[in-house]
């Protein structure tokens, strides 16, 4: 194909990936902040003399990150973002950004933070996040509770059908509370109890995340066990580094989903596949942090060929300068998946959401309507 036609075909494929309705199951709030917002916040703190803006600016704009740099950067992000108003602002913007690229269901995860200097408790932090979700105006945010009730009818108008500008798009949003690996057993238990307390306000699950070389599985196990007993769905970052003992413990614990699974050995792969725990795949993140040697050698291919349940995710779209549409595009460009395979991949993710019943039914309807438009043979497709 001549270079110009190739560029045009790539552009069309990118547009198709944006139009595809998508389900995002692994996105960290503070990793998904827009660079422009981070720079603005850094400038404000620079002006107050809290940080040196010029130093921070280069760090924020850098594209490639080592794992160590990532977690250092999160410390910086947290300095920039941890007061109630800022948390509210970034929650609003993050949902707007996902909705703008046709994410129809979003599970956003975040670590509830205590910050006495700002009068912040774990609960007030999550309330500030919820306030942000409710402040979104560009789209209707349906925040459902863990009993899967919503205040409004769930008969969602499939966004792909909308051609009337006066009607708004809709995005379903659920919150997962993250336990940070730096936390103590008692702090982790606080987070699980908070998830239980806020289950009627949009909190639908628990995540274990944080720097994978920090902390011990035994520290979080009582909290994760408690969540399991309470019936709260759990997802765990697994195998970001080759920690044999912990990978085994996570697989034995059998959470509802796992994230990453970069560094599993043959035996662990076998076990993962035999228990078919759905995997949250984060291509760009894994390559940028060294969890996968390259896109071409990413374990996505092995899991996909084995028909293992999986879902494409961004992890930290701000930190890694990606988007969910871009992750779908990368899968097509790297592994040669067809549009119908991509569509199936996006639609299959509905099975793994922590919502159930009516929400899943609505999502299936959205995909059904989208299929008619997105899967037309090229010769019948309406010209752009
Ligand atoms: C493990 C990660 C992560 O919670 O402040 N986080 N944990 N592996 C990753 N892969 C690169 N990316 C993000 O969002 C930022 C926090 O999410 C976790 C880290 O604990 C990070 O501090 P919140 O909203």
UniProtKB/TrEMBL annotation:
Pfam families linked: A_deaminase
Entry's Gene Ontology BP terms: adenosine catabolic process; inosine biosynthetic process; nucleotide metabolic process
InterPro entries reported for this sequence: A_deaminase_dom, Ado/ade_deaminase, Metal_Hydrolase
Cofactor(s) required, per the database record: Zn(2+)
Keyword annotations of the record: Hydrolase, Metal-binding, Nucleotide metabolism, Zinc
Keyword Hydrolase set for record: yes
Entry keyword 4Fe-4S: no
Transmembrane regions: none
Coiled coil: none
Superkingdom to which the source organism belongs: Eukaryota
Chemical reaction(s) catalysed: N(6)-methyl-AMP + H2O + H(+) = IMP + methylamine
GO MF: adenosine deaminase activity; metal ion binding
CDD domains documented for this protein: ADA_AMPD
Domain named Adenosine deaminase: residues: 21-364
Family statement: Belongs to the metallo-dependent hydrolases superfamily. Adenosine and AMP deaminases family.
Official protein name in the record: Adenosine deaminase domain-containing protein
Native species: Eragrostis curvula (weeping love grass)
């Amino acid at each position: 194909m001549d270079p110009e036609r190739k560029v045009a075909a790539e552009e069309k494929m990118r547009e198709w990936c944006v139009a595809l309705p998508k389900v995002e199951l692994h996105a960290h709030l503070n990793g998904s902040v827009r660079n422009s917002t981070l720079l603005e916040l850094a400038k404000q703190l620079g002006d107050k003399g809290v940080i040196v803006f010029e130093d921070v600016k280069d760090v924020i704009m850098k594209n490639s990150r080592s794992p160590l740099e990532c977690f250092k950067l999160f410390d910086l992000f947290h300095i920039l973002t941890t007061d109630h108003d800022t948390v509210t602002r970034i929650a609003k913007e993050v949902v707007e950004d996902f909705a703008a690229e046709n994410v129809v269901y979003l599970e956003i995860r975040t670590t509830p933070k205590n910050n006495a200097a700002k009068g912040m408790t774990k609960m007030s932090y999550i309330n500030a996040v919820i306030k942000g979700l409710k402040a979104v105006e560009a789209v209707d945010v349906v925040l459902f509770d863990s009993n899967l009730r919503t205040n409004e009818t769930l008969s969602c108008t499939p966004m792909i059908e909308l051609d009337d500008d006066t009607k708004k798009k809709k995005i379903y949003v659920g919150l997962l509370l993250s336990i940070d690996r730096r936390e103590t057993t008692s702090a982790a238990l606080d987070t699980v109890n908070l998830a239980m307390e806020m289950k009627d306000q949009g909190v639908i699950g628990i995540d274990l995340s944080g720097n994978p070389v920090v902390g011990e599985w035994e520290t979080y196990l009582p909290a994760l066990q408690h969540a399991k007993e309470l019936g709260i769905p759990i997802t765990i970052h697994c195998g970001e580094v080759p920690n044999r003992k912990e990978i085994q413990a996570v697989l034995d614990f059998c959470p509802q989903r796992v994230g990453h699974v970069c560094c599993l050995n043959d035996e662990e792969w076998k076990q993962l596949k035999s228990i078919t725990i759905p995997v949250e795949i984060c291509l760009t993140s894994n390559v940028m942090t060294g969890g996968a040697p390259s896109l071409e050698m990413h374990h996505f291919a092995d899991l996909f060929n084995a028909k293992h349940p999986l879902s494409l995710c961004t992890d930290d779209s701000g930190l890694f300068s990606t988007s969910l549409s871009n992750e779908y595009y990368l899968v097509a460009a790297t592994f040669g998946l067809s549009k119908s395979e991509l569509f199936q991949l996006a639609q299959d993710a509905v099975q793994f959401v922590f919502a159930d019943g009516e929400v899943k039914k609505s999502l299936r309807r959205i995909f059904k309507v989208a299929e008619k438009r997105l899967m037309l043979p090229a010769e019948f497709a309406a010209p752009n």
